[in-house]
Amino acid sequence: MSFKSNYILDKLPKHLKQYIKPQNYEDYSPIDQAVWRYVMRKNVDYLSKVAHKSYLEGLNKTGISIDYIPNMYGMNRILKEIGWAAVAVDGFIPPSAFMEFQAYNVLVIASDIRQLEHIEYTPAPDIIHEGAGHAPIIANPEYAEYLRRFGEIGSKAISSAKDYELYEAVRHLSIIKEAEGTPQEEIDKAQKKIEDLQLNMGEPSEMALIRNLHWWTVEYGLIGTVDQPRIYGAGLLSSIGESAWCMTNKVKKIPYSIEAAHTSFDITQPQPQLFVTPDFAYLNQVLEEFANTMSLRRGGLSGLEKLINSKEMGTVELSTGLQISGHFESAIAHEGKPVYLQTKGNTALAYREKELIGHGIKQHPKGFGSPIGKLKGINLAIEDMSPRDLKAYNIYEGEVVELEFIGDIKVSGEIITGTRNLKGEIILITLTNCTVTHKEKVLFRPDWGLYHMAVGENIVSVFNGPADLQSFDLVTHKVTDTTIKSVKTEKRKQLEQLYKQVREFREGKNVTISRNKVFQEIKANHPEDWLLAVELYELAKNNDDISFAKELKAHLEALKHQKPQLGHLIDDGFGLVDKNLVI
């Protein structure tokens, strides 16, 4: 097993565990640790003024240290006290899987960390974004329940065929943009592909709409009032640049509502507007309002057609509670209602998320078809018939019947048995020597074997994924792109060693090193590195080494003139030191 489990992770289904990878804590370099420390010191200094109060409280509750990249094992020991857990993954994972993890109270953490060159913002999910952004806020019980409920509902959202293509394009861009040395033309090409896809997505799917809600709340949400908002979204909590930018008048603040579901976003750009929720409880209200628009709750022909168009595995639930899971191929409609549905390939039948005995994929490897609705000329639906009614209409063991449904679906054959639900309602009728037709078209022939006819007047729910997770082998994820690890040059290794020496000096592990010698090495061999010089400046100031501090400051001021884009980062470093920030 590539991760240390606990009682929360033990509940994860097998198909989610395929995304988990080992954190490999020893792979974090001293430069990575310095990046974490700088961002966290800067964020906590600023966010203590503008973030929701749960942020600082949550850092303590979830075991997030300012000085060290969090170790997943340590986080899990603390997170399980509030009923959550964390796992490491490789960058972006499919949206439905991401949300399903949330439904199991599991925080997904991309374990890589951004390069020093991308210290303010990275399009790739990283441990600063996930660990320092998402984890602290889940210590708030109301928000944690929103996150869990969002995962539960979001994982049932139906995708379009283009959603996965866009996900893979975004994942690819995030990987190459964060990778060292990627040619600009390759980045431009990947960016163009995303733009082209976004312009040709067609009608947004349920998954696209709920991802918008996720973006404007979990990732980029503000809380309070439009005039005095506070930050709670992880994308803002983990970005030095955007957390300050978002509080200016240049970013429009809008009261949060279901309209956020129809507001798209661009992951590669700062956000031009943000939504403000009055409190965390209101997030759940809007989520339930959105869920009421989903096929999960509306069912019907539109839900069935969405599932067919998605080409993904999904489930149709009938009014008797019978659930049909598989890849839906076609539907026959009559007067705006579905009167026949058909799957192709492996199909399983379930009731209350538990597979019906004898009705798994071994029984239905080539698909499943069934009429839906009432019999022609009979007001009473089959599911509402008492045993006496069923007998009167010859729906009885051993009877040869011809059942004609509204919509010109005819089922002819000999009834051999029926299956009932816990309420005693008949949910499945099995026939032999059966022929099923729609007008002149034959839908099922006697030589195909037994015909299992679902019973249900209406489709009450349609959702992504199988009803019973055990019915199918879902361990099928194939990653086309993986995070690119750059090969370290000798020069890079030497720089990492210098960072390590300074860290060990600060922590009292090795106070014999010469900080001045480290500084001379920086000037001679790494003149463009600014963060280590800031750390040396901090040590000089804290040790009242005034002349060394002046020398370091002069070096950094000169670097600001050579590379103006580093100016604000260096100034922020000075600010943290001069405040003598104690966290």
From TrEMBL:
Record-linked InterPro entries: ArAA_hydroxylase (IPR001273), ArAA_hydroxylase_sf (IPR036951), Aro-AA_hydroxylase_C_sf (IPR036329), Aromatic-AA_hydroxylase_C (IPR019774)
Cofactor: Fe(2+)
ATP-binding in keyword set: no
GO molecular function list: iron ion binding; oxidoreductase activity, acting on paired donors, with incorporation or reduction of molecular oxygen, reduced pteridine as one donor, and incorporation of one atom of oxygen
Tree of life domain: Bacteria
Binding annotation for Fe cation: 129, 134, 219
Family assignment from sequence similarity: Belongs to the biopterin-dependent aromatic amino acid hydroxylase family.
Name of the protein in question: Phenylalanine-4-hydroxylase
Originating species: Arenibacter palladensis
